[in-house]
Design a protein that fits this description.
By secondary structure, this protein is of the alpha+beta class. The protein has an 8-stranded antiparallel sheet with strand order 13-10-12-11-15-16-14-17, sandwiched between helices. Strands 3-4-8-6-7 form a 5-stranded antiparallel sheet. The radius of gyration is 21 Å and the shape is globular. It starts with 5 loop residues before the first helix and ends in a 15-residue tail after the last helix.
């Protein structure tokens, strides 16, 4: 089923007699496969409103992400939350959609400064599990109502409703990017250096550490963006601040800086290698110890260490239980991005599970929208 209007979408859901597998471009098949009829939003396309002066864009959910980014680029603007492209990592094809980005709350390295996708979401239109059209939030930053429900839809993976339209805050592109680089730091020292940089007043927009960079050596990356003089000044001050860790060099070549952060954003080191890929969200200070406890796994640290991409090689003795036990009582969580779909999401505490059941009962009492995707539907 590929509706071309919101009214058609509502009718299809209202008349559905069984489970529906909700998808956008089909590029992010994360979670247990849903045994149901495919309902695709790819017919709901088009940018409905774009006001560069107001920094707002409204698009139908099936609009290709590339079309949105091209329209923004023409006006010197961008989606500041830097959504990753999952296709190379998951070996999928098709075109990512803006609705899919919102439904999965896809957020990249710049999240540490500007926030996640949900933090840029101003409004949504969606159809719930009973076929009712619901509008929440606004189309501009001055008119945002029901903001909490808007944020709730980001990361709900189509389990609470099928998005038909999203309203987003956009931001200007920066004039220059500079990246401080240092090779050879241990995981522990790298995370300490990143914490110092992120705790400074110098507006760091990216902080990552790869155990194996493009040339195979450990590399620590700190990104600065802005006007040329500002980037140069802040880079110099950070080099002084980080002198105890070593001599960080500054890279300003636009092609190299873009490629380097795309390498981190899209988890390029793990794309063509076999094995399970996990996404761990933890406190940065806990990150090196967690990785050290998972012998045999390889890690990429993003968000200053708050996000760990973990590659578990084929044949490893590391299991989902082992990985989640390593997080233990740290308050973090682990999501399996590539691997056995039965072990994808972190088991919920009884209180959170009850809250999730209550929400799904309210928005989808028939349990037809992506049933089983994010856990038991009981």
């Amino acid at each position: 089923m590929i509706p071309e209007t919101e009214a058609e979408l509502a009718t299809m859901i209202a008349q559905a007699e069984g489970p529906l597998r909700i998808q956008g471009g089909g590029t992010r098949p994360i979670g247990a496969p849903v045994d149901g009829q495919i309902l695709s939003t790819t017919g709901l396309t088009g940018i409905e409103l774009y006001e560069p002066g107001a920094l707002t864009l409204v698009a139908r959910a099936g609009t290709p992400l590339a079309e949105v980014e091209a329209a923004l680029d023409a006006e010197g603007q961008r989606l500041a939350f830097e959504p990753m492209d999952h296709r190379p990592l998951l070996n999928t094809s098709g075109e990512p959609t803006i609705g899919g980005v919102v439904a999965a709350n896809v957020s990249g390295p710049r999240r540490i400064q500007v926030g996640a996708c949900r933090d840029h979401l101003l409004g949504v239109r969606f159809v719930d599990g009973q076929g009712q059209i619901i509008k929440n939030g606004g189309r501009v930053m001055k008119n945002v109502t029901g903001y909490d429900l808007v944020k709730l839809m980001a990361g709900s993976y189509g389990t609470l409703g099928v998005l038909s339209e999203v309203s987003l805050k956009v931001l200007p592109k920066t004039h220059m990017t500079g990246v401080l680089l240092f090779e050879g730091l241990s995981d522990t020292e790298a995370v300490k250096a990143l914490s110092v940089a992120l705790g400074s007043p110098f507006e760091v927009t990216g902080g990552a550490h790869l155990q194996k960079g493009m040339d195979g050596a450990p590399v620590t990356m700190i990104r600065l963006e802005g006007f040329e003089n500002s980037v140069a000044y802040r880079a110099g001050e950070l080099q002084k601040l980080l002198a105890g860790f070593g001599d960080f060099m500054l890279e300003t070549d636009p092609d190299r800086t873009r490629a380097g952060w795309r390498y981190v954003r899209d988890v390029a080191p793990f794309q063509t290698r076999s094995g399970d890929v996990w996404r761990l969200s933890v406190k940065p200070s806990d990150a090196p110890g967690i990785v050290a406890a998972l012998s045999g796994a390889e890690a990429i640290y993003d968000w200053g260490g708050g996000l760990i991409w973990l590659l578990v090689p084929e044949g490893s003795e590391l299991t989902a239980a082992t990985i989640r036990a390593a997080i233990g009582g740290t308050g973090g969580h682990a999501t399996l991005i590539r691997g056995n779909p039965a072990e994808v999401f972190q088991p919920l505490s009884p209180a959170v599970a009850a809250l999730q059941r209550g929400l799904r009962q309210k928005f989808d009492p028939r349990r037809i929208l992506n049933p089983g995707l994010m856990g038991a539907d009981t």
